[in-house]
Amino acid sequence: MKVPIGKFDEKGISGVNPSFQLGTGSWDYQMALNYKFQKNSIAVLLNTDYTIKTENKKHYRFGNQWNYAATGFYRLWKNENSIFSGKLGMQGEVYDWNRQFGEVMPKTAGSALYGKFGFEASYKKLSLGSEIMLPAYTDLAGEISKQNPGSLFF
User: Fold this and answer.
1) Which has the closest alpha carbon to 4: 64, 53, 69?
2) What share of the chain is helix, strand, coil (3-state, %, to 5)?
3) What are phi and psi of 14, to 5 degrees?
4) Domain spans of the chain, in order of start
5) How far apart are CA 56 and CA 44, in angstroms?
6) How far apart are CA 133 and CA 89, in angstroms?
7) Which pLDDT value is given to residue 152?
8) Cα dist. 68→35, 103, 128, 150 in Å?
9) DSSP result, 47-74
10) In this structure, which long-range contacts are made by residues 99-104, counting pairs with CB atoms below 8 Å and at least 24 apart in sequence?
């Protein structure tokens, strides 16, 4: 559950991604599912979540949101207390239409797909990691953008 502690700013709904801002001013409910498969030096992590969004005090309702990701890990180095792994994967998000006073807001639904790569290092019970995400496809706010065919992910 997401509690509405952030402040909703109507000026923020006209940006590149109208479904993303620091405060929505609404109670939202999230369902998540994670699965990890690991064998020897390889691991695969699958994540998905769905967020049901409600109307805020200004009668604005952000569209429900679905996120998904698949990440592969490969252990590059291991000793008694430490592990260093590389990771490669993809992550996507899908936004439903935003509404104000029950009316659909134009150019608010959309989706995006990102490729990602990075590393994760652990020592005993501590972990540190980093990843870079690059857009492979975006269709947010009515603006479609595709990477060049020769780019890293497509």
Assistant:
1) 53
2) 5, 60, 35
3) -110, 15
4) 10-146
5) 38
6) 9
7) 43
8) 12, 28, 22, 25
9) EEEEEEE---TTSEEPPPEEEEEEEEEE
10) 99/55, 99/60, 99/61, 99/63, 100/59, 100/60, 100/61, 101/59
Sheet strands side by side (includes 103-104): 60-61, 99-100, 103-104
Provide mean pLDDT across the span 110-120. Answer: 96
Closest by CA position to 74, among listed 88, 64, 56: 88
pLDDT tens digit sequence for 59-99: 999 999 999 999 999 999 999 999 999 999 999 999 999 99
Structure tokens at 130: 């980093």
Output the CA–CA distances (angstroms, integers) from residue 81 to 25, 97, 125, 153, in the order listed: 45, 48, 9, 34
Whether 111 and 93 have beta carbons less than 8 Å apart is answered as: yes
13 close to 105: Cβ distance less than 8 angstroms = yes
Beta strands in the chain (DSSP E): 28-39, 42-53, 60-61, 65-78, 82-95, 99-100, 103-104, 110-123, 126-140, 143-146
* 21 touches 56 (CB < 8 A): no
**Between 148 and 39, where is the model more confident?**
39
CA 40 to chain CA centroid, Å, is 28
